[in-house]
Amino acid sequence: MYTWPDAPAAEQVYVILTFIVLAELVGAIGAGASQFVTRSGRRGGCGGRSARRIRPRAPYTPYDSPLWRIAPWQPPGWVFFVAWTFILYPLIGLAAAVTFLHGDYTDAYWISALAFWFAQLLFNGLWTPIFFGAFNPRAAFGIILVTLVLTIVDIVLLWFVDTLAFAFMIVYAAWLLFATTLNGYTAFAKDYEQLARVIDEFKGVRAEMNKKEDAEAVFARQGASSAAADDAVLLPGIENVDKRSFMPTSRPFV
C-alpha cells in the first residue's frame, strides 16, 4: 500500500507547487525560445516594428509548406495545449515533488531519480525551439529520443523510490512515445530532402530580411524614409522563392 509523505502540510504544498511551476516554466521558456528564434527581428526576421512593414513580402515559414509532412494521427493543436499545460507538466511536477518529499539523501536511487528527472526536463525544453524555431525535425527527433530514454531510466529508478511518481512518469512516457511517432513521421518523410532545401531557402531569405531591417534602423536614425532603405538594400532571393513551397495550410501550430 502506498504511503504518502509525512512532511508538514505547508512543506508539501510548497514543494508540490515549486516542482509544478518549474515544469510549466521550462515548457513556457521552450515555447518562448521557439517564437524568438522564428520571429525575432535579429534572428527570426519576422519581429520588431520595421519587420512588420516587410513581413507581407516574406514567404511563409517552412512549417506552412505542404512538404512539411504531418502524421495523419496527429490531434488538433488545442489537444497539445491542454495535455501539456493541464495534465503532463503537472503530473511530472507531482512526480518530482513526491519523490523529493520521500527523500533519503543517502539513497542512490533517490538521488539518481531526481537527477534523471531534471535531465529529461532540460531536453524536453530544448525540443520546441529546435523543432518549431529552427525548423529542424531530425535534430528534434534526436532530442525527443534522448528525452524518452532519460524518462525510461527515471521510471526504472522511481520503482525503487516512489510508486506514485513511477505511475505519473509512465503516463508522461506514453505521451512522449506518441510524440516521437509524430516527430519521426515529419523527420523521415520521403520528400524530406526537398523540405530541407525549402528550409535552407527560407533561412537565406530571413537573413536578407535581417539586413533590410538593419538598414531601415540606420536610415530611421538619419531621418530617412523606409523607402530609402528599400532602395539601399534589396532582398535577393525573395522574388525567386518557389511560392508553392510555402502555400498556407490549415494545420495547427503545436
Overall description:
This protein has 254 residues and is an all-alpha fold. It has one domain. It is 68% helix and 0% strand. It contains 8 helices and no strands. α1 packs parallel to α4 (108-133) and α4 packs antiparallel against α5. The protein is elongated and about 65 Å long.
Compose a concise summary of this entry:
This protein has 254 residues and is mainly α. Helices cover 68% and strands 0% of the residues. The chain has one domain.
Radius of gyration: 23 Å
Largest beta-sheet details: none
What is the rounded distance between the termini? Answer: 39 Å
Oligomeric composition of the shown chains = single chain
Integer tally of domains: 1
DSSP summary: helix tally: 8
Succession of helices and strands: HHHHHHHH
* Helicity, as a percent range: 55-70%
Unreliably modeled segments: 40-59, 232-254
Mean of residue pLDDT values = 81
Q: What portion of the residues fall into strands of 2 or more residues?
A: under 5%
Q: Number of DSSP strands?
A: 0
Structural class determined from secondary elements: mainly alpha
Shape: elongated
